[in-house]
Write a sequence for this structure.
């Protein structure tokens, strides 16, 4: 196993004998370098608290509570290339969207690099845009003035927030979203997204089904709409 710093990210490349795999280089638990861990040919183990992952997929095994972010690897003429995929491909809500529509959505996405402390939106702001976390960490609080409370964090690439932008008559924000650390986000206008999905009703239906599940989950969980 060996780690590389690529464009500000630590990437772990693992030689699994017949092929190579590439994953995020830091443990999703507490940012420990995974190249200091153990690899037995099938399982990757973080030495700190023994979280483990299946090397073929990055899926969590045993104690681990989060999967690893996986990168595609291409080997050509003796060189190994790590290919960064779009954060949209990691979005659960867009899993069943056709390649053509996903490409259209990628064309709508604006990539924003925001320093720690940036307020992305405030309570009562219009819910025009939906966001996909590419890297970093976003914190949500609900309430006003000095009566606020933490409503949760977004941590993993592909997590979506601000999804109220996809709802009819765009409700206003019910939480405050702030970058807890330097973060990279994809920002998509809700109306433009809906237009793209209306042009592909099969994909649109799948997105709406997943959105309904997300809304149901968040009515009892973090308030990040
Ligand atoms: S830091 Fe890796 S398992 Fe805790």
């Amino acid at each position: 196993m060996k780690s590389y710093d690529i464009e500000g990210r630590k990437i772990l490349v693992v030689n699994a004998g017949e092929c190579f795999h590439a994953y995020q280089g830091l443990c999703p638990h507490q940012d420990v370098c995974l190249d200091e861990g153990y690899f037995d040919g099938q399982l990757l183990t973080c030495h700190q608290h023994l979280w483990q992952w299946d090397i073929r997929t990055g899926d969590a095994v045993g104690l681990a509570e989060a999967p690893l972010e996986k990168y595609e690897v291409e080997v050509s003429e003796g060189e190994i290339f790590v290919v960064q995929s779009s954060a949209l491909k990691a979005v659960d809500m867009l899993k069943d969207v056709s390649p053509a529509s996903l490409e259209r959505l990628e064309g709508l996405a604006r990539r924003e690099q925001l320093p720690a402390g940036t307020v992305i939106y405030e309570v009562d702001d219009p819910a025009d845009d939906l966001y996909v976390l590419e890297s970093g960490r976003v914190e949500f609080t609900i309430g006003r003035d000095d009566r606020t409370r933490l409503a949760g964090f977004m941590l993993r690439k592909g997590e979506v927030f601000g999804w109220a932008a996809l709802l009819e008559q765009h409700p206003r924000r019910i939480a405050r979203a702030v970058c807890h650390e330097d973060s990279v986000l994809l920002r998509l206008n809700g109306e433009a997204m809906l237009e793209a999905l209306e042009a592909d009703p099969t994909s649109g239906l799948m997105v709406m089904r997943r959105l309904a599940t997300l809304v149901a989950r968040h009515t009892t969980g973090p308030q990040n709409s």
About this structure: The chain has three helices and 17 strands. The pocket of FE2/S2 (inorganic) cluster is lined by residues 27, 29-30, 32, 46, 48-49, 51 (CB under 6 Å).
